[in-house]
Amino acid sequence: MSRQSIVEALIRSRRTLAGPDLPPLRKEDAEGGCGVIGIAASVPIPGRHLLQSLRQMRNRGNGKGGGIAAVGLDPRFFDISPEVLEQDYLLTIAYLDPAVRGQVESSFVEPVFAVDHIFPIPTLPDFRAIPGLEVPPPEVVCYFGRVRPQVRERFLQQQGLSERERTTVEDEIVYQNSYRLNRTFYSSTGEKRAFVLSHGKNLLVLKMVGYGDDVIRYYRLEDLRAHVWIGHHRYPTKGRVWHPGGAHPFIGMHEALVHNGDFANYASITAYLAQRGVYPLFLTDTEVAVLVFDVHHRLYGYPLEYVIEAMAPTTERDFTLLPPEKQRVYRMLQTVHMHGSPDGPWFFLIAQSDPNERAYRLIGITDTSMLRPQVFALQQGHEAIGFAASEKQAIDAALESLSAEDPRFWSRADLYWNARGGSHTDGGAFIFTVQPNGASASLRCTDKFGRAIAPDPAKRPPTPWPIGGGAIAGAPVAPSALSDLDGSPEDAFTRLCRRIPTWDYPDLLRFLEALEHRATDDEGRAWTIRLLSLLMDRHYPTGSMKRSGLLSLLDESFAGVVEAIRRAPSEGYVWMGCDGPQPEPLHPDQVLVIDARGYPPEGEGSLARMIVAMHRRGFRRFLVVHTRGHRFIANGLGPNSDGVRVDVYGFSGDYLASGIDGAEVVVHGTAQDQLAQIMKRGKLVVHGDVGQTFMYAAKGGEVYVLGNAAGRPLINAVGRPRVVINGTCLDYLAESFMAGDPLHGGGFVILNGVTFDEDGRLLDLETPYPGGNLFSLASGGAIYIRDPYRRITEDQLNGGAFAPLEAEDWALIRPYLEENERLFGISLQRLLTVEGEIAAPEQVYRKIRPAGHEALQPEEAWVRNQHG
Amino acid sequence: MDLTGKTAEELVIEKHVEALRRGFHLWPTLAFDRPPALGDARWTADLILATWLQAETGRPPDNGLEYRVGRSGGGFDRLDFKFLPPEQWLPEEEPVDTSIPLNRRPYDRRIEIPVPWYGAGMSFGSISEQVMVARAKAAQQWQTFTCTGEGGYPDSLIPYRDHVITQIATGMFGVREETVQWAPIVEFKYAQGAKPGLGGHLLGDKATVAVAKMRESVPWVSLFSPFPFHSVYSVEDHKKHIDWVKTMNPEALVSVKVSTPTDVDMVAVGSYYAGAHIIHLDGSYGGTGAAPEIAKKNIAMPIELAIPKVHRFLEQEGIRDEVVVMASGGIRTAHDVAKAIALGADGCILGTTELIALGCTRCSNCERGRGCPFGLTTTDPELSQLVDPDWAAERIGNLYRSFQQQLQGILRRLGLRSVRDLRGRRDLLRYERRDA
Asked: What is the predicted ipTM?
């Protein structure tokens, strides 16, 4: 039987679903962004690690909706056999009114399912034990069941389908049954009494009116193990009464979706769905998103690549760079499904169980315009774990929590990256697939096009963790390691770079222990902190060790030095934490070490406000350690903050260094979104990547970024910002840049287009800039792009024009590249080296200057005439 | 150089100023016909002339000029009050309170303004520095506020900073930590009722050297602010935005200026939950002549529809008394202010009206560098000298006095002792079919 006839039969079978009282085509809820996190691992992970991520992202929700989904469950939690878990549908029903349970079971469970097992989800005795919960969470009952043969037979017969479509038809029966149940007991009655949380195989969804982490606490999922988790905080803004049905995740068939963002074309999508016999009931963007996914994936049977294309179409220049065959298929997809493509800012995370292929998946998809924050990560040891989230710090929080108790994982991921929405490069989507294989399982990460993302397999993980434990701690320090502690930290670092490739983790541990011993007096502390920072910040060969493993060990060592300062403050260093006293500076250069843990990420008493208060008290040197997503670091120092230096360690949060006007801020690691917004003056150094809208409307300052910027860096920047980005950007670099004439005091961006491999080798990126929009609508400033192979083409410029790199341009940017070398060890000589030979600067760097916007040229010409 | 010791330029300016001021005085008081081609259905010649007269005398006109409504045939022009019979009016000697609070939350600083309005954001670039200073002086005199708009904070405003709102709009031109820290109130401009979905724009002609310097942009190049804030695509981003301001200036009250799409009620509730103190609804009639014709009046909801929608919704949510709703975008007269409040606003924000008080005739040449014949919406160094800040501040102050007097009169005739009691009293309004 052809796919088309099956599709037609299924759509036909849904005719009875519509009914006379269809819900309106207007969405009922307004909600904005939210906080999302997804985890996929080759081993089942307990829910408490997801809890930690969600706890640290509470400021992305408002406690009016939270939920989780878990896929690849542990059968023991439900007291069933692995076979039942695998074969049975897991129908999970939320009873808002427990009195209807009998009625629901007799009319919607028993007639359709041969139930093998019933499992009420255990809860805390009293929901009020969780602070802030106002609405009692629903009672939840799981039914493990198989579709009754006679129900299936009837359906097959009615729709003229053969026994071969058995699975397809069973899925459809379950789907329609849930729809009818919801119509009866949730949306149409006005009274909301019961609804289906999930009905896929090996998939559990729980949600309620609260935060996502409350769900884990209340339903006692801390110990539930699953291969794939997604979690969500919601931020609805309407209604005094909230219902758990509005919280994420929403379900298709064997998948659940959480979402950050909102759509402008809800009505269009709803109409598109109605044509296919699908009628939303909960009236939110998220519900229609997963229904569209279900239509593409289950009804049409599209491969994931096509599903993703239909939702986040490839457009503009990226489309033209696709192979012709893909263009042909994608054009068809876009033609047919454009009305079902969510328009607006969105980022989806999908947890899916695939009973046919016996796989579990975590899928992250970003919209074509990349308007929501998103970050992916992967750690590959003997076991593997992948992440996708709204914020990097949420990933780090889960890894920190997990690695603290599970020796197979460590606290840093091997790779962190952003997706380029709707692009020809990665398609803006990544898929983590867990494939069980007997008792064990494997994890594979691929992009939309099926290309694998994997760290260097030759590197060994630092597992089991912690390495060696007590045995190594007692071992004598190798004399060679001690000699590494002579001279300046920079000299020591240079020597270590040669030595580390010959080491294994125990050698490194012994060395670090000796290093920590050195950090007893002020001189030793300064020396040690500097060397540890160099080791964390720089990229260098690590031999058989993984860089992520090495960084985990350095983190431990750094924490040890901080702990020593806490125990024994000195003339040069004093410690402060959230429950301790607030010290007075002994002298203005005394370094204040602030342990960020425990400070709120924003608002009153937050870390950011504490830094301002301590600056007023007289401190100028800050070492902010153990940050956990804290926002606004170094904001609020006010004008003329020259002489203030803030070093940030850990996982810092959004808006860091925004508005600084004189201060110097150094981030030892990767930073998040909205950094250096309206930055005026001063210096910012980031030893990693930066996120969305970096330096939005900045006025000036000197900025160095070791890695990449995400979308829209330097949009609307004016004045004289001078920026070196060593990696690249997703797209929209320097849109509406208005930074004067760089040769006469204005601003510019140097884009080097390089990256490091896992062994610290500097490599040229395939192209220094993959995006289709560079310097759009710019009227001032310049971009100096390192493009020796002339990969950047005119069609990427939209308001910019190539100009020859003159001697004065080189004289202008050279000092910044020299400082870049000093900060990151990226040598100017290496940057000028092309095919093994040193080339002239004008052969390597290209200048892009504003060309003026065509539409404005006549007017501007007129103005110039007027004003000479 | 002539015998008076003045340069030719100074004499030319003096002559023009003299002629203009004489005109502002004479036109409203002439017994014969109205000036030809003045005004339109919303801002009729009578309303413009009446505003000039009030700006001169501090009182409503008594010479027959219609100073309460226009002839648009809709909106505020069709609304009237159901006044009590005269014997139930409050006596003249009874005090009537026109003050409103700008923070209704139980925490953060208390700010009250003695009249239920303050000045709208108009940038340095859209208007001259002289006009900005004049507005700030009037705001100080009247203990209310004016707003920087998006174009920086001229040093000449610093003496008035307790009465100046710093606006953060999507281009964030001229916004620095310092300017945020000076401000008792910080306004996020998400959108403008005259052109929702479009950012601010200043054509190259007006981006003079001084304007470009303040904005740190390139002179004579058109400036476009993006739409929307690229760091704010959702309510949790918006909350983060507000948290940012509170980190820079923990004392500041936060106002959120939004236009009036059909789901403006949701936007208002979202802003409230994100921590805003003031929700500023900007309806479709507002904006300068510089907004594109295609956008003006064609996109946003008229303010008289938006106010009750938001007011009712906030009431249903049980949060109406924790947030201040300010309305703008077509508030022309004291009667418009009273009607907006009766529809559910706490107060109003005045932009165009203040420019009319200074002589604006709504000729819609605002986007040109030397387009404004009255030296208001210009940044031309010569033209802008047509406005003396002290003269202009006095005229704005006079208009305020006239408005306050009328508002008190309206309240008396409604038997209300405080403007706060008028809020949301739709029952006191009547929808009238008037002949246009």
From this structure: 0.94
